[in-house]
Each structure stands twice: as structure tokens, then as C-alpha cells.
Amino acid sequence: MNKVGDGTRILNFIIDGFLVFILSFFAFRFWNFYVVNWNFRPFNFWWFVAGSLFVYYTFWEASFNRTPGKWITATKVVRLDGNKPLLVQILIRSLVRLTLIDFLFMAVLGKPLHDLVSKTTVVEC
User: Fold this and answer.
1) What is the DSSP letter of 3?
2) 27 within 8 A of 47, measured Cβ to Cβ
3) CA distance 75 to 84
4) Helix locations, 39-79, DSSP H
């Protein structure tokens, strides 16, 4: 069980971030159709980013222990003992990702806050 380095984690973030942005963009455009034509309440784009981020990571990591970015880099999410993470741990990871300070913990503790709080890590397959 080899833990991945910062470069791999950053590549995962770039790939998954791009996909989350695309998902958010289309959800936002879909919603705005109803805002314009049916007088639905408008929402800021960043609400769609937050919702897409939570749903994206929860779905992929709960279903497959990896996201498309982790598939490309041949990595996966595991508990600290090497087993598959529990759904509660995945939900915690997804919620903590919504905080603005999540990534800052990599510089201080060597792992992001969502790994620290959920007691999970990313390893090579």
C-alpha cells in the first residue's frame, strides 16, 4: 500500500476539477432555462459548483473507491487500515472538500483536511 505523492494528488484534482466544472456548467445552464422561461428562482453559479462537487465525489468514491481522475492516475481511496472506506467516511470527505481551507493542510500536515478528518488516504492500485 504505497501512498501517492503531491503531484499525483494535484493531477487528480485538475482532472476531477475540470469534470466537476463541466457538470456544474451544464446544471447551471439547465436551471437557467427554467429561470428565464418559467420564473424559477435564480441561483449563483457557485451553488451549482458546490452541489456538483459533493455529488460527484460522493457518487464515484462510494461506488468505485475512485474518481475518473484517480482511474487515470491508477490510485484509489482506502481507510488507514487499507480496507474500503465506509459510506460515512466518503460523505465526510465530500463535505470537507467544500471548505476553503481543505488544500492548505497539505503544506502543513502532508495531507489534505478531507483525508485527515475522514481517516482515509489515497494509495496506488
Assistant:
1) B
2) no
3) 13
4) 45-64, 68-72
Q: How far is CA 94 from CA 1, 10, 31, 35, in A?
A: 23, 17, 23, 28
Ordered per-residue pLDDT tens for the chain, 125 residues: 899 999 999 999 999 999 999 999 999 999 999 999 999 999 999 999 999 999 999 999 999 999 999 999 999 999 999 999 999 999 999 999 999 899 899 999 989 999 999 999 999 99
In the chain, how long is the greatest CA-to-CA distance? 53
**Which one-letter DSSP state was computed for residue 80?**
T
Q: What is the dihedral of CA 7, 12, 15, 17, to 10 degrees?
A: -110
Q: Where are the beta strands (DSSP E) in the chain?
A: 75-79, 120-124
